[in-house]
Amino acid sequence: MYKCTIILAAGQGSRMKSDIPKMLHKVCGKEMINHVIDTLRKCDIEDIDVVIGNGAEKVKAGTESRKVQYSVQKEQLGTGHAVMCAEDFLKGKKGTVAIFVGDGPLITKTTVEKLFSYHEENQYSATILTSIMENPAKYGRIIRNEENQVEKIVEFKDCNEEEVKVKEINSGMYCFDIESLLSTLSKLNNNNNQGEYYLTDVIEILKKEGKKVGAVDVPVDEITAVNSKVELAVAEEIMRKRINKKHMENGVILIDPNNVYINCDVEIGKDTIIYPNNVIEGKTVIKDNCTIYPGCRIKDSVIEENVTIQSSVIMESTVGKETTVGPFAYIRPQSVIGNKVKIGDFVEVKKSQIGDGTKISHLTYIGDAEVGKNCNFGCGTVVVNYDGVNKHKTIVGDNSFIGCNTNLVSPVEVESNTYIAAGSTITEKVPENALAIARARQINKENWVKKNNK
Ligand code: UD1
Ligand code: CA
Fold it and tell me: Are residues 50 and 120 in the same domain?
């Protein structure tokens, strides 16, 4: 049967107290609404319509990469009104439409599929995704009749004393037969506590018309909605646990899964060990057998097998096999670090290539450079890549030994198999096999101290 979905995302989200539209707040590194869209795509749902209103342009820009359709709700007159605004999207379609909310990022593929199949197998006109909550707070309540069939949904603010005690709640997510939904939308009114057109009222109308309505209940974790920053943290925690569990099931060792922060699109290989207090972001890939000690932030990077990283930041870069990084190293975007390299303490590398086997052990800055294989950088080397206006490139050939406290003033080339004396300021090319000394000679003035009565 034909399937499509509508995502309601026009609400203001005033309880978030934020300048960013609610739907664009991130959970484990991805915007809430994009979590919903990506989950629906995994269920092979092609036609997705997002109802936008508050912060419409920003929500559109934030979801652009997902290639969805949009309906605009100019005034936010309620969830029922929001669906009315998507009428053009639904018109002429026959089949099932599922409705989700942009602030419910925790919905999973399994649940979406369960909702569709339950709805279609039972030939319901509407199927509500529900949950049982010990403390149902402000969620709408599912009211059932004596035969235990769903009668209606009553919003928290409209509940009487009996209704408010009901623990079965409305997730705000449903499946509808498209034609039945379209025929009821025009019958909605706003005679309620909030003066809004409630989508939830569609249920009672359908029931009164003698149509079949069903409900599927799922764990609360699936449908938890985010209305405030407190709830945002709750959603983050649920999602984080899911992500961490997935990695452990794939063979990753998390020493303390409660204290590792891994974004949803990160991939990690088996037998990699991740210590607490690490943040791994974006599209990072960490391969097998790596050890990530505490205090690292790794973003949009590729870490090859058997790498060890301690207390370091790595951004948009690649780190080769068996390399060690840190403690306290900073690898900035567009760096490519080779295999068996040592990037030691207080080393910063920016937009540079470092060849296999090279050691940069301490207190060094390498920027805009191409460094060969098996070089050794002494402590305190600085690539002077910036003249105050432009950035310039430095090239260091294979097997070069750069003495401590050397400045390499770019643009400059140090050829292979060279040796630079400590304290040199290199401004000219160093030819292959040469020793370069570029510093003032030492002068000793004999007995100078005695003569000056010091
Ligand atoms: C809604 C349900 C409630 C359910 C809860 C689950 C109604 C009347 N109530 O309440 O039964 O328990 O969700 O989370 O549907 N939106 C629009 N346009 C509007 C109003 C809302 O697009 O005019 C969007 C919001 O952006 C949001 C979603 O609809 O994504 C839900 O709106 P919200 O105001 O959060 O509804 P609740 O009061 O939480
Ligand atoms: Ca809500």
Answer: yes
